[in-house]
Amino acid sequence: MSPKAKIRDISYTDNKYLDMDLLRFTTAGSVDDGKSTLIGRLLYDSKSIFEDQMEAIEKTSRGSGEEEVNLALLTDGLKAEREQKITIDVAYRYFATPKRKFIIADTPGHTQYTRNMVTGASTADLAIILIDATKGVLTQSRRHAFISSLLQIPHMVVAVNKMDLVDYDQNVFDSIVSDFRRFSKKLDIDNITYIPISALKGDNIVNKSDNMEWYNGSTLLHFLENVRVDARENIIDFRFPVQHVIRPNQNFRGYSGRISSGRIRPGEEVMVLPSGITSQVKELVTWNGNLDEAYPGDSVTITIEDEIDISRGDMIVRKNNIPNVNSQFEAYICWMNEKRMETGRQYLLMHTTKTVQVFFDEIIYRMNVDSISREDASKLELNEIGRVKLRTSQPLFFDPYQINQKTGSFIIIDPATNVTVGAGMIRAGSTETEDGSLRAEDGRDKVNVASSVSPDVLWEPWNIAREAREERNGHKAVVVWLTGISGAGKSSIAKALEKKLWEEGKQTMLLDGDQIRHGLCGDLGFSASDRTENIRRVGEVAKLFFEHGNIVLCTFVSPIEKDRKAVRSLFPEGRFIEVYVSCNPETAQKRDPKGLYEKAKKGEIKGLTGFDAKYEVSADSDLSINTDEVSVKESVELILKSIL
User: Fold this and answer.
1) pLDDT tens digits, 324-338
2) To 10 degrees, what angle do helices 114-121 and 139-150 make?
């Protein structure tokens, strides 16, 4: 039965829509898996189609002799797409629900348009991989899943479409899920959700399907409305590529651009690259007035306290948090031009606001994206992906793509035609460079550059997937991070909680601050940078135990909010539970289980959190427990409700 025309009366200038979260997602998969139809169904069922649009596609559908209204026509706008009933170019569509705004990138399924898929997925927070229930997991399904993983898209939905053509058989769905899980073990992505749907009929798109009572999960739209949208945003590493120098008169000099990542406030100490000169932020200037704090994506003009020679292509960063500075590095390249890539030939590389000459020194390997294996290669053809070594005429200021997509990505331009021929994702610094330090004119070391990934070390997938371990253990893996001042009761709660979990047969690991400081972090002190490194190491250790299917209990003062957020970012949504354990400072000093407050009062300890050092309370803790009011036993029960 033909759907009736509906109108969605939305004014995107209304404040309620301006303040909403925005989710960017892409659809991908093999040819005819139903990507465009799915988007059309989402637009239709969410009432985001106007009458004239609906009348136009109804007329076109009737003219083509189709029984059902072809909702795919809402996104397939090119004449060739409508004639061939395929997607060729990336189509972007916008819609909103009462809970969230969306930008959809409908990408083509044909192998020859892989470059278009990369373009559409490059800014996505979530990828929907469509799989035809009648065909199962195909080569192009694997290809697009691999590219989504390579692009570090944090969330993936595997939507098994056309369930109506297999009589909504649960066995068909389970078989496809099993096949994809085996394949996904090779991918660098943890958060995969499986949903059985029929885009044509509307099953499990917006409303729960009566035809699949065996499915107990959420509908696709409900998942899209509630999935975490900031998982890809780096709010820790401040990176400000300078785009333009503003000098309207002798009394003002500002540096304009868009903040790639991190946050900044007036008064904070910064460093300018490549000079390595430090200063302080004076003002954050915008058209609407000065800001107290600026965030990723904000376009601002920064003024600084000192007169420094800064120009387009330079980067402003925090003094103690700098990117890699190097002219040689390795990257994954997706080649997007019919003319093959040549080693030794000069190209142009555009990275943030900087454009430099670049040469491809070596193709380390080409990825066979069908089997996720590596092949020897001396060239890259159109749509092929390979890992290469590059050398630029000037140093770049970059982070590995896994950490920072904005400063870890670039495009390659043919200088003869000015055509974009490739897109790259930086993986690590080259091992063939010198010590990697920048030197000032007087020869002193100004910036010491350390790679966040050991050179020539490639990521190896887990031998046994976490999901398999969780199935054997009979429970999900989760990290419970208990934070708060010394004496608040973190360790007492964690020990009681672990005993309770152990008695129930759960697999656990307790990481305690004192134990870590006696071994893994015995080389660290208690300065701000050492505290940050201590928590970073603990987070990585917790992730190892997490991937082995454990319930990991961590008890650390961890007073710096950004350090806790950095650890949270290592884990899938809902698998990191931050528990803020608090009490009255006088209570903590009275308890003083380790005698730290007594030493602080005597002046033997400086910078004790809760005494003469500040604890940064997080606004987004998952659970808060005041041990002045709640007993250890009650605290354990509260946490158990959050994790089981």
Assistant:
1) 999 999 999 989 888
2) 40
d(CA 335, CA 384): 6
Neighbours of 196 (CB within 10 A): 28
Map residue 39 onto helix, strand or coil.
helix
Residues in the chain predicted with pLDDT less than 50, given as ranges, are: 1-14, 50, 76-89, 109, 429-458
Domain boundaries, the chain: 15-226, 239-318, 324-434, 474-643
> Looking at the domain that runs over 239-318, which CATH code has it been given?
2.40.30.10
What are the residues facing 316 on neighbouring strands? 240, 272
pTM for the structure as a whole: 0.58
CATH hierarchy code of domain 474-643: 3.40.50.300
Beta strand ranges found along 148-297 (DSSP E): 155-161, 192-196, 239-241, 244-249, 252-258, 269-273, 277-285
Indicate the CATH number for domain 324-434.
2.40.30.10
SS3 state of residue 543? helix
Nearest to 275 by CA among 233, 326, 314: 314
- Cis preceding linkage at 415, omega within 30: no
Answer whether CATH 3.40.50.300 is correct for domain 15-226. Answer: yes
Q: What is the pLDDT of residues 18-40, one digit of tens each?
A: 667 888 898 887 777 777 788 87
Burial 551-573 (b: 16+ CB within 10 A, else e): bbbbbbbbbbbbbbebbbbbbbe
**Token pair in block for residue 250:** 């002798």
